[in-house]
Design a protein that fits this description.
Layout (H helix, E strand, L loop, with lengths): L2 H13 L2 H8 L3 H15 L4 E2 L5 E2 L1 H28 L5 E6 L1 H18 L4 E6 L2 H9 L5 E5 L10 E16 L9 E2 L1 H4 L4 E4 L4 H13 L5 E5 L2 H8 L6 E4 L12 E6 L4 H9 L9 E9 L6 H17 L14
Parallel strand pairs: 3-4, 3-5, 7-11, 8-9
Antiparallel strand pairs: 1-2, 5-12, 6-10, 6-11, 6-12
Helix pairs in contact: 1-2, 1-3, 1-4, 2-3, 5-11
Length: about 325
């Protein structure tokens, strides 16, 4: 059964004439006849009484509302896709890590809403792992996350690095480690640490680096917002390793101190250089924007992608790295 057969059937049922339905469909009368005959052969019953006027048989009368519904659904589906390609979508959903939501997205959101006032923008702050999962599940259109090539290594994913930022140590202003300008790694092991919750890329990054350094990580508390980190750290001897963008307000808080990390130990530095990495640069994390290739064909999503590339790196002191994967045109 083909769509044009159903359309021919509906045209004959509506006009009562094979000749008129042919003109309506823009085909020859013989084409209409063949389509109806093929449909009747497949169904096993005649659909029309062939007389001066084509009238529906009992089977045709029963079949008519079903055929009409199928064709209507086809028209609706085609119109929806046409609207989608024209940028007429009801909403655009974005998942982003907390620091991006707080400091870098507001101007992007403002410009997008001015250009697409009819598209409802939904932004959710999530950890990187969770943000990538909801993107893969089709629940959001874009994700702005800590880059993790293992979670985005699939052909349909488009990944662009937006910027890099230094990881530093947050502590109370009177903490013993505040005496250092650059804290030695051996000193970090002496104090309990507050870390990001499971599912956040920062937790995995901190755990991995401590493991490489061969020193224990004394994680005593898991949190997920910069506000919570500041509130806990200022109360006692706990410390937290956080990215630069999560420390913006802490730098202006007289009760808190932010310090850099000392260079990697010689063993870890040797391994880094062996892998082609620069062991003398500060410990950084990469922040990337991720979507799927098919989504970049939709105008509002492509426009949001463009705005993020234009606005976010400009607001960040680090220059963006070369794209991991170039976006499709």
């Amino acid at each position: 059964m083909r769509l044009e057969q159903l359309q021919a059937f509906l045209a004959v049922a509506e006009t009562g004439s094979f000749q008129q339905s042919a003109r309506q469909c823009g085909v020859t009368q013989s084409t209409i006849s063949r389509q109806i005959q093929a449909l009747e052969a497949e169904l096993g019953l005649p659909l029309f009484h062939r007389a001066a006027q084509a009238k529906l048989t009992l089977a045709g009368d029963r079949f008519w509302p079903r055929a009409r519904k199928i064709c209507q659904e086809w028209d609706n589906a085609r119109q929806e896709l046409t609207d989608l390609l024209a940028g007429k979508q009801p909403e655009l959903c974005v998942a982003a890590i907390h620091s991006v939501c707080a400091y870098y997205l507001p101007p992007v959101l403002q410009k997008f809403c001015q250009s697409y006032p009819e598209v409802q923008l939904r932004v959710t702050a999530l950890g990187s792992d969770r943000a990538l999962k909801v993107l893969k599940d089709g629940l959001v259109d874009l994700a702005i996350v800590m880059n993790n090539r293992f979670l985005t290594a699939s052909p349909e994913m488009v990944v662009d690095i937006l910027y890099e930022e230094t990881i530093e140590v947050l502590m109370a202003v009177d903490h013993p480690l505040a005496q250092y300008d650059r804290i030695p790694w051996s000193e970090l092991a002496r104090f309990p640490q507050v870390v990001f919750k499971d599912g956040y890329g920062m937790q995995r990054l901190v755990q991995d680096l401590f493991l490489k350094q061969g020193i224990p990580l004394r994680a005593v508390l898991e949190l997920n917002t910069p506000d919570a980190f500041r509130g806990v750290v200022r109360q006692g001897d706990t410390i937290a390793l956080l990215p630069e963008s999560a420390l913006v307000e802490a730098r202006h808080d007289p009760t808190l101190a932010v310090r850099s990390l000392a260079p990697l130990s010689s063993e870890v530095a040797f391994e880094a250089e062996k892998n082609g990495e620069n062991s003398q640069v500060p410990w950084n994390r990469q922040v990337a924007i991720v979507t799927t290739r098919d989504r970049l064909q939709i105008p509002p999503i492509a426009y949001f992608w463009k705005l993020v590339h234009e606005c976010v790196p400009e607001q960040h002191p680090f220059h963006p790295r070369e794209s991991a994967t170039s976006p499709v045109s």
